[in-house]
Amino acid sequence: MQQAMPLTKSLSAVSHHDMANAIRALAMDAVERANSGHPGMPMGMADVATVLFSEFLSFDPAHPHWPNRDRFILSAGHGSMLQYALLYLTGYEDMTLDDLKNFRQLGSKTAGHPEFGHATGIETTTGPLGQGLANGVGMALAERMLAARFGDIVGHYTYVIAGDGCLMEGISQEAISLAGHLKLSKLIILWDDNKISIDGPTSLTTSDDQLKRFEASGWNVAAIDGHKHEAISKALTAAKKSDKPTLIACRTKIGFGAPTKEGSEKCHGSPLGKSEIEGARAKLGWSHGEFEVPSEILTAWRKVGQRGSKTYSEWTKKYHDVGAQTCEEFERRIAHDLPDGWNEALLAYKKKLAETKPNEATRKSSENTLEVLTTAIPEMIGGSADLTGSNNTKTKNQQPITSSHFSGSYIYYGVREHAMGAIMNGIALYGGFIPYGGTFLVFTDYARPAIRLSALMNQRVIYVMTHDSIGLGEDGPTHQPVEHLASLRAIPNLYVFRPADATETAECWALALSLKTAPSILALSRQNLPALRLEYTKENLCARGGYIISESPITHNPSPITTLIATGSEVTIAIDAQKLLAEKGIATRVVSLPCWELFDAQPQSYRDEVLGIDTLKVAIEAASGFGWERYLGPDGIFIGMTGFGASAPAKDLYKHFGITAEKVVKAVMEKI
After folding, report:
1. CB atoms within 10 A of CB 156
2. What is the pTM of this model?
3. What is the pLDDT of residue 561?
């Protein structure tokens, strides 16, 4: 696609230096007024940002959701005032001077770190260092994948500003390694190479040669003076011609212009103070008052924002020339809407399950469900962190994505769980795709910061987490998740699904896909599980989070005095215990509770109906009991894990740890 042309001639009346100083002044003033924030990074990277936005970035504030805009990510999110100042100066309607004055205040769009959804132009939530960099890899990958499907109506760049901290975080190596491997040439990282971190000079903690590191990962690299506009422009021009992703090391001074704090950690994360700001204004030649941007400088910046209108108009014409059918499909995907017919295909599959009643691991049930879904929903992009054959995430109709084949729909992420989550976030934020990726449930520990951001940003990212309990057996306690279900359930806006059989797995997949504004965890078993849902129901019984899966088998005493509640592989144990208790004349109901989050959202009357009010409640889950108190009450019983697992066959482990039907019966009889 045609990119916006440089604006150097039209801006000749106002220098880049003046435009950059407007960013510096707004950053200083906003942080000072809030008495909180990070002025140093915006002041140091103001020159780089000015050149990027005025000469290279293709965007249109009047159409902020334009699908073919360049993506700009501030991975060093603590420098948020850099982005807020740019949004205001270039004319985004929902970023006003009053918003800058309200920096870091309750209810403000201008939060301490950029938050997706607070204002247009903020492509992702950043702040946890390295996340934005990996999001950028996801967006650059999504751009290549969408271009492979829709041709030249898609074609733009992804720019990331990253700091020393971003490059220190381990996620950065995972992300840049995959980006280099896939040759994502439209990804350009501008590294704020100021050699300062919170503790002081970066020499305290690192002596890495970052250029050689990126080069070894398959990147094009360059080093420049980040305060010389011509050097910045020349480096960006060269980067756009490379057939590799590019790192530009921009040597800068943190707090540029501050008379005593420039180049020091003292201006990283605290206000400069009034006297230092007065000195900076004098040193920079900025004689204007607090939050004052002279009209000629503001006009120059607004022209930067307006120049994208021509590119947008040209793209719109080209877009409509591709035909109504293509436009309709493109818009459906960008709007995150599911295609017609997908649910009908899944219902037909559920009917088949009722007939065949498979005895299989739910990871296999997930694979079989995906065979149906990836055919019906072509925008699904699968993947695994080097566990494809164990996670069962790749279907027969999926081809891998490679550096020369972006039309595929499966990503081999390698052993990069953290980057996988953040890259999926980038893909979801970009639009047009529904990403899902797998690893073992125990390794959600490696991906947790990205999972948390999926939830915070309301993104439909689906995490397929197999080997979900001690049921994985011989690999032992290092691989057996115990506390993980509880810790994941603690994350707001994250839906944790633990299905009990093939039918529940299909229903949970349908629910995860239907959640347009939340991520999901599918916790799936390694061991085979019997079919429990023996009859076809068009209704998705898992949709309410929990339901009675087995009524009391005692016909003369149908009123249960005990409710057995379980998830996943332990629902079978609950049903076996129900039969044994029936032999003793104890009436029970069994409740399958595959998703706490959905169940907790139901009316109290429904929850009381399912769990019972005056019954003894027993929970069975091969995991930590933390959190089950909400359903059990003070007199309830928990059958599960109280410590780590062990290495042995699954059946032996369940017996050893007392997670059996017999143990349930004994506990109930002792209680009543």
Report:
1. 23
2. 0.97
3. 87
Q: Give the Cα separation of 569 and 661 in Å (integer).
A: 12
Strand 520-523 and strand 495-497: the pairing is: parallel
Contact 658, 638 (CB under 8 A): no
At 667, the amino acid letter reads: A
Q: Which residue has the tokens 């081809």?
A: 399
pLDDT classification of 672: cutoffs 50, 70, 90: confident
CA distance 332 to 343: 16
Which residue's structure tokens are 């900076």?
A: 280
User: Which pLDDT score is estimated for 8?
Assistant: 39
By C-alpha distance, which of 81, 95, 92 is closest to 26? 81
Q: Which two tokens stand for residue 127?
A: 């702040």
Q: How far apart are CA 179 and CA 403, in angstroms?
A: 9
Residue with tokens 């998830």: 567
* Phi, psi of 432, rounded to the nearest 5 degrees: 95, -10
Of these residues, 417, 570, 597, 621, which one is catalytic?
Answer: 417
In 457-501, which ranges are continuous DSSP H helix?
484-489
In tens, the pLDDT along 355-370 reads 999 999 999 999 999 9
Burial class (CB in 10 A: 0-12, 13-18, 19+), 477: middle
- CA-closest candidate to residue 443, choices 174, 669, 210: 174
**Among 570, 468, 487, which Cα is nearest to 529's?**
570
The pLDDT confidence band at residue 539, using thresholds 50, 70 and 90, is very high
- Cα distance between residue 109 and residue 93, in whole Å: 12
Tokens 């959905």 -> residue = 598
What is residue 12's predicted lDDT score, i.e. its pLDDT? 53
Catalytic site includes residue 539: no
Dihedral sign computed on CA atoms, order 176, 180, 181, 187: positive
**What pLDDT score was predicted for residue 248?**
99
The three-state secondary structure class of 140 is helix
- E-strand ranges in 395-445 read 410-412, 434-440
Beta-sheet strands, E only, within 293-342:
none
- Compute the distance between CA of residue 135 and CA of residue 157 in angstroms, rounded to an integer: 14
Are the C-beta atoms of 640 and 621 separated by less than 8 Å?
A: yes
- Beta strands 200-201 and 196-197: pairing type? antiparallel
Q: At 20, give phi and psi (nearest 5°).
A: -65, -35
